[in-house]
Design goal:
alpha/beta; Rossmann fold; seven-stranded mixed beta sheet; three-stranded antiparallel beta sheet
């Protein structure tokens, strides 16, 4: 998952503060459904979305393989928010979600939030990750946003496998017709699926993404 690349990226780039459109979308979903849960933010980066969940009174753990960005995130914690948020530098595909105890929380159910991290996994890592999820009991929701095979940058760089390319770093573009049946096979019901442009538009980019909300049955 290109740890050296991301360590260098976070060491040399300014912090991203504004929450993503996807984080806003998920918080709206949580509020509309009156849900109460803890959230694991997978590949949290500079904690732009982690902090947004915290501001919305959601206990959250930010996980990222980059020890550089995790150290920065921990250094910015205040005595108030460190009661409800923490950061771990680790591989989220094999994290022991079931036995992690959130601070100051008696809520047993949790959600996994993955924005732009699923396409950082190769096929073996994805299968290992999904198998890990199939064995958990308290996991309730998956919130996923990722680049698809219809993305404009698909095909850029060196091809290293099916839908896999390396530019400055590795990406595996997701085929929803393959991925969604995998979720169903391990016991998830797809309650929201959207695909297209406009989900994460910036001045320089408008990627073709899929958005998935899945609930474990």
């Amino acid at each position: 998952m290109d740890q050296n690349y991301w360590d260098s990226f976070y060491d040399s780039n300014p912090d991203l503060i504004k929450p993503s459109q996807f984080a806003r979308f998920i918080v709206n979903f949580i509020n509309e459904k009156n849900l109460v849960m803890n959230i694991f933010d997978l590949g949290c980066g500079t904690a732009r979305d982690t902090n947004f969940f915290l501001l919305n009174k959601i206990n959250v753990l930010g996980i990222d393989l980059s020890s550089t960005v995790i150290k920065k995130n921990k250094a910015k914690l205040t005595k108030l928010n460190e009661t409800f948020v923490d950061f771990y530098s680790t591989d989220f595909t094999c994290f022991d979600y079931e036995n992690f105890n959130f601070k100051n929380s008696n809520i047993s159910s949790y959600a996994l939030y993955s924005r732009f991290t699923l396409h950082s996994l190769n096929y073996d890592q994805e299968n290992f990750f999904l198998n890990n999820l199939s064995l958990t009991k308290n996991l309730k929701f998956l919130f996923i946003e990722a680049r698809t095979i219809k993305d404009d940058i698909y095909g850029n760089g060196e091809k290293v496998g099916m839908h896999e390319y390396i530019t400055s770093h590795y990406r595996r573009f997701i085929d929803p017709l393959v991925f969604l049946p995998k979720l169903k096979k391990i016991g998830f019901e797809i309650i929201t699926f959207e695909e297209g442009h406009g989900f994460s538009k910036t001045a320089n980019d408008d990627p073709h993404l899929m958005r998935v909300i899945a609930i474990k049955k």
